[in-house]
Amino acid sequence: MAKKSLLRRAGVLAATLATSLLVSAQAAEPIKIGSFLSVTGPASFLGDPELKTLEMYVEKINEEGGVLGRPLELIHYDDVGNASNARNFAGRLIRSDRVDIIVGGSTTGATMAAVPLVEQARIPFISLAGAVTIVDPVKEWVFKVPQSDRMAAERILWDMRRRGFDKIGLISGTGGFGASGRQQTLAVASEYGIEVVADETYGPSDSDMTAQLTNIRNTDGVDAILNFGFGQGPAIVTKNYAALDINLPFYQSHGVASDAFLDLAGDAAEGLRLPASPILIPSSLPDDDPQREVVQSYAQEYRDHWGTRVSTFGGYAYDGLMLAVQAIEAAGSTDKAAVRDELENILGYVGVTGIFNMAPDDHNGLTPESFRILEVKDGDWMLVE
Amino acid sequence: MTVMIDVKGLDKEFGGVHAIEGLEFSVEQGQIYSVIGPNGAGKTTLFNLITGFYTPTRGEITLNGESVVGMDPNRLAERGMCRTFQQMQICMNMTALENVMLGRHLKIRSNLFTSMFRLPSLLREEKACRERSKELMAFVGCGEYINTEASAMSYGALKRLEIARALAADPKILLLDEPAAGLNGTETAELEELIRKVAEQGVTVMLVEHDMKLVMGISDRLLVINYGRKLAEGTPEEIRNNPDVIAAYLGG
Amino acid sequence: MFDRFLEWRMNYVLVLAIIVFVIPLLMENPFYFDLATQILIIAATVVGLNLLVGYAGQISLGHAGFYGMGAYFSAVATSAYNWPPLLALIVAAAVVGLVAWVVGRPILKLKGHYLSMATLAVGFIIAIIINNESQLTGGPDGMVVPPFSLFGWELSTFGLYSLLGLEIPGHVAWYLVAGVLLLVAVIIAQNLIDSPLGRALRSIHGSEIAARTVGVDTARYKSMVFVISAVYASIMGSVFAHFTGFITPAIAGFDYSIVLITMVVLGGMASPMGVILGAVVLKLLPQFLAGFQEYETAIFGFILMATMIFMPKGFYPTAMNAIRNKLGKSSGGKA
Amino acid sequence: MFSEFLQYLFTGITIGATYALVALGFTIIYNASHVINFAQGEFLMIGGMGTVAFMGLGIPMFFAIILAVLLACLVGIALQRLAIAPAKNADVVTLIIITIGASIFIRGIAQVVWGKDYHVVPPFSGDEPIRLGGAVLNSQSLWVLGIGAVLVIALILFFTRTLIGRAILGTSMNKLAAQLVGVKTQMVLMLAFGLSALLGSVAGVTVAPITFTAYDIGILLALKGFVAAAMGGLGSGLGAVVGGILLGVVEAMTAGYISSEYKDAVAFSMILLVLFFMPRGLFGGRTVERV
């Protein structure tokens, strides 16, 4: 990492030099980074920090001289969490704006809607969405930043196994994230010797999940409860869970890995566990943690720039952008096939989300271990290890 | 003469209030039969019962010997019954001619398939329908409105248009609810002439009307009702001399 | 000559055809074709919905349910069961028609807001089923749909085709197919409207009481037009699924039903050109508003509200009236 | 077994009380103007988000609530004056689209002014749940039920005992007649919208501690409220309350005993069933077709 950034600084220096020598460098054609995100609508808590991150770092990179001596230009559309909009905007980015690479797609639905276009147009696409279907089966031009929901399920089940639970109750949202997470959990549970004995769902705008939780509580032999979902739903589940006084270990997914969740759930969240990026605990990362530096600087810069706390989701956009920049630099041009090949070759990139090791059969490049198991203690996240 | 409409023991209650009570009468084919009575006597309710818009609480209505109680208006139309309304029911989203052509709805055999592809059989049928409707518009005296939007027509013309539409169905019995309401003297005279012409063609006409001059001049028989009950029935002459009727109208 | 053109009931179809087929000569960018094709598909859908809402005067707040059903039937049948797309499209239309008939009979007895409520409920139930049966439909994340093909000949937006010696890129080919579909949809709809059947439908809107007295079996006609508009939606839903290659349950959802009915009302009820214009505007508006960022929602709502307040009949009839008045004045009040 | 049932019932009544309050808002406006106001949910949103925003300015909760309710009333009156009144002769569908447009507009503004995050409104009386017969009841649920009951009684008294209330009812029955006896119908309509907004925003702030609040919370609440109002019979206050509670209980029971995935589908099937047999809802007036 240190070497890489040194290289980049050298590049920046060269670029700055070039600028001062050649006035024409001013006319250097920008590298177009296309993006469609759910900045408004039900998934705005994903898209909003993602866009803020992209805007901020594109600006920052340009101040430092851009990439390959060319400035970055961010072209962004808001898909409002609607997949057909996402598809249309992806089409617009590819065919009208003629961008060089796409970093975006806050939700799995939005990402998957754009995939057929991206594949046919043969343009590198780095998705910021979660479901494993995005990269399994591998699609030639599609990469993704976040750990898949399958990894989240695996990580949670691993921790459950470690604590000796073998029967769990599952409650999940019926939105894309929850439904896919539920499927993955059911699929991999047996590998960890865990049985899902209760399986409940709730709608995206439900205001009370007591009935579902009562059902789970009344199921025989439940050792722990897992909630897969995002938005305000999991916070309501958490509150209902506390109100029902269910004294079972409680797990949430990485879908709620943001401070906003703690604000909503309040005391009720006390003691629950979830898998998350280290971004939630920048200051309590051990000194020897390889991600410590990048996580802390991103968290600091984001807070300084926007005046709000970071979330995991903004971190995805950070990694997405940096992966794109790195691949373009390595390719030495914006040639789409070359950039794609370089994306596939990325090894050991230390990001906010984890350490990425891409491969032809792995367009995500993360392992379940990149998730840290956190526990809520005294209203804050705490690393369990 | 055959009996067209036969009403026996007819009752209609609205929330316990008797709108029509124990009404009995019959209308013979080809007659002009009028129903009169003070406001709120139940005349329009009676029409709504006969034409299927209301279902009687009790009693029997037969049309040409067939019981028609509980039958929908469109089923009654298939049996040759047609009517106009006190509060006119004109399709204001159509032209005058289309309103009359609508009246021939039951005469038309075209189906979804012929309509979708506008097959020749449909065009032939439409042409015939249009011709007949134009004739009827001329017959009722609104020939000049053929291409006019219904919403642009005067009240009097619309009244006649509604009759033309009813006639377009080639009805056996025609019920007119206050056709003269809102018309001036000349228009009323024209209307009287029109009703006579219709009756001459063998159509039975039932009439609810307030214009006594019109009613007395035109009707073969009259039914007088008050508070939903029969007060009198008979020829115009008999009604004119009936003390109950005089009392109801003058002193009641 | 010109007068006869003005009198001709299909005059606007000719105008529409010219517009549809001239546009490709003016556009280069495949993205615009992509958008235009979607507009044509959705326009054909609302032409069908207009028969129900504009002409027969029956509200449906659940029509996207039928659209989504058609789309998903085609998607599942062609991907999971390898049906030929055309067969899937036809069977989907038949199934959707049947469903519409079964639910339509009891629902259409309801009036006004109760009818809106019932259609909304039907749409919701369809959307919930699509959302939950994820083994078949892929659930909320959506599913991939194979491209349209006929006798082994595949229509893809990225293909290249030759017709009469002309090289036609896939996106233009799709556009032309959708354009022809829209014209067929409009011609059939106009034929229906101009038939006795159409007259009966319009009479239900004008005066249901009058319709019944002249013998129109209003219940039968209402369910017939409900089925016809549902079949329109189903067919165009199938076409849309093959065109975009990926669908999510959102296309069957309440929001989309509202979009459809808004297209009908915004452009001008009971006017095919009006509803097509409604589709064009509502589909293009988000593209234009994309630059307004966070103000997009507010501006969209404002435009919607203001248009309906100041042009309650929709903007096509309002504009036509204005033009007619102007022409009338300039020709010395001849009209 | 019984405690389970009791739990579902409590849950259902809590959710149902929310629906009932939204449905009552529909009812007031429907009664005065025969308009279904699809922007009704936005009043709830303004109630909740307004309270959060005013509290953010350091205003004590009680006054923040009052300010939020006032704000909602202003929006309600503005809605009637600026959007509904100019379109008074429009079709039913056109009015539906206008109110939907208004709802999108209000939501859009709220999103710009108040942001997109979900917020918590503190419960009125602590977080401690109440235990009863093995089941748990959120203390805020009691507030919802209590305030709901008070509002319903206040409304009944308002419509039957006060001159203005009777004027609203009179206007709904016969606009012309009401004008003839000197009722200023425009004034009455404005009042109805204001009142409905008041009801909506009070409901919004009361349920916010349970459901959280955000700029887009109004959409689905409005939808459920409409379902409840239609099921009970449009225009009937009793219908709105019964419809709301019934809807909530059916949802909770379905989630508990049948399938949580299909609980909304069951709720929607139920309204279809009700309408098949009672085309004007459970308590809708049986009017005779006037010919």
The CATH topology label of the largest domain in chain B is Rossmann fold
- Which strands sit side by side, in order, in the main sheet of chain A? 2-1-3-4-5
Largest sheet of chain A: 5 strands, parallel
Sheet of most strands of chain B: 6 strands, mixed
**Would you count the extended β strands of chain B for me?**
10
Shape of chain A: globular
CATH hierarchy, class of the largest domain in chain A = Alpha Beta
> What value does the average pLDDT of chain A take?
89
Q: What's the CATH class label of the largest domain in chain B?
A: Alpha Beta
- Helical segment count of chain A: 12
Based on the coordinates given, report the CATH architecture of the largest domain in chain A.
Answer: 3-Layer(aba) Sandwich
The helical percent of chain A reads 40-55%
Shape of chain B: globular
Q: Which residues of chain B form runs of ≥5 with pLDDT under 50?
A: none
Transmembrane segments (chain C): 12-33, 39-57, 87-107, 114-130, 150-166, 173-193, 224-246, 258-285, 297-316
InterPro entries (chain C): ABC_transp_permease, LivM-like
Protein name (chain C): Amino acid/amide ABC transporter membrane protein 2, HAAT family
GO molecular function, one term (chain C): branched-chain amino acid transmembrane transporter activity
Give an overview in words.
The complex is a heterotetramer of chains A (385), B (252), C (335) and D (291). Chain A has 2 domains: 30-147 and 291-370, Rossmann fold; 150-276, Response regulator (Rossmann fold), CATH 3.40.50.2300. Chain A contains 12 helices and 14 strands. Chain A has helices spanning 2-21, 44-63, 83-96, 108-121, 149-162, 176-188, 210-217, 233-243, 259-265, 292-306, 312-331, 336-345, and strands at residues 31-37, 72-78, 101-104, 125-127, 142-144, 167-173, 195-202, 224-228, 250-252, 273-276, 347-350, 355-357, 372-377, 380-383. In chain A, the strands form 4 sheets. In chain A, strands 2-1-3-4-5 form a 5-stranded parallel β-sheet, sandwiched between helices. Chain B is an alpha/beta fold. Chain B is built from 10 helices and 10 strands. In chain B, strand 4 (58-63) and strand 5 (66-67) form a beta hairpin. Chain B is globular, with a radius of gyration of 19 Å. The mean pLDDT of chain B is 91. Chain C has one domain. Helix content of chain C is 73%, strand content 5%. Chain C is globular, with a radius of gyration of 20 Å. A two-stranded antiparallel sheet of chain C has the order 1-6. Chain C has a two-stranded antiparallel ribbon with strand order 2-3. The chains are: A alpha/beta (385), B alpha/beta (252), C mainly alpha (335), D mainly alpha (291). At the C-D interface, helix 5, helix 6, helix 12 and helix 14 of C face helix 4, helix 9 and helix 11 of D. Chain A: Residues 1-27 form the signal peptide. Chain A: Belongs to the leucine-binding protein family. Chain A: This is Amino acid/amide ABC transporter substrate-binding protein, HAAT family. Chain A: InterPro entries: BCAA_transport, Leu-bd, Leu_Ile_Val-bd, Peripla_BP_I.
